[in-house]
Specification:
Helix content is about 20%, strand content about 40%. It is of the alpha+beta class. A hairpin with a 2-residue loop joins β6 and β7. The longest helix is centred in the C-terminal third of the chain and has 23 residues.
Length: about 190
C-alpha cells in the first residue's frame, strides 16, 4: 500500500510544470544623485501578475558607483507585470541593510506608476552613494524597462506525460488489488 501511495504521489507531482520567470533590463538618468545614466537588470519576476524580484543588479553607471547586486535586504520589493510589460514597480534597497556580496555602499530606489510599451508614466528612480538611507529620486528620469529573453529553466513537462504517468499509477493500483485477491492467505 505504501508503494501504491508513492506511485500515485509521483504521478501527481509529475504533472506540475515550472513557473515562467521574466527578466527585464532597465535604465534611467540619475538626476537626483550627480547625473549620469544607470543601467541594470531585474530578474525573477512573475511573467504575469504581482511578484518580488529575485535579483536587481546595477550593470552600468556612468559615474561608476553602485555596481552589483542590490537585492540583499530590500525595504520594498514589489513589481506588477502584464503582457510582458512592467506596469508598476516599487523597489528600495538601502545599502547598509545589505549583506555581502550585495552592494552595501549605495542605495537604489525605483518607483513607478504604469507603463505602455517602453514608456513609464510617473516613474522615479535614483542610485545614491549614501548607504544609510533611501536614494534620492529624480522625477522624469526617463526610466524604461525592456523585456529580455527568459533564462532557460527546467523544461515544462508536456501535457501527455502527466496523463500517462497517472494512467500507469492507476494500472499499478489495479494490479496490486488483483494480486491481493489471487494470493492465498498463509
Amino acid at each position: 500500500m505504501r508503494r501504491l501511495g508513492l506511485l500515485l504521489a509521483l504521478a501527481i507531482a509529475g504533472g506540475a510544470s515550472a513557473a515562467s520567470a521574466a527578466t527585464f533590463s532597465f535604465s534611467f538618468e540619475n538626476t537626483a544623485n550627480g547625473g549620469g545614466t544607470v543601467e541594470g537588470v531585474v530578474r525573477g519576476l512573475a511573467a504575469s501578475g504581482e511578484s518580488s524580484a529575485s535579483s536587481v543588479e546595477i550593470t552600468a553607471n556612468t559615474l561608476g558607483f553602485g555596481l552589483g547586486e542590490q537585492i540583499g535586504s530590500p525595504v520594498v520589493n514589489d513589481f506588477i507585470v502584464a503582457d510582458g510589460i512592467v506596469m508598476y514597480f516599487n523597489f528600495t534597497s538601502v545599502g547598509s541593510l545589505n549583506q555581502p556580496p550585495a552592494v552595501s555602499c549605495c542605495s537604489l530606489t525605483l518607483e513607478g506608476g504604469y507603463s505602455t510599451g517602453d514608456k513609464v508614466y510617473g516613474g522615479d528612480a535614483g542610485l545614491g552613494t549614501n548607504g544609510f538611507e533611501a536614494a534620492g529620486v529624480g522625477f522624469d528620469t526617463g526610466i524604461s524597462f525592456t523585456a529580455l529573453e527568459d533564462s532557460p529553466g527546467p523544461a515544462p513537462i508536456p501535457l501527455p506525460a502527466p496523463g500517462l504517468m497517472l494512467g500507469a499509477a492507476l494500472l499499478a493500483l489495479a494490479g496490486v488489488a488483483v494480486r491481493r485477491r489471487v494470493t492465498p492467505a498463509a
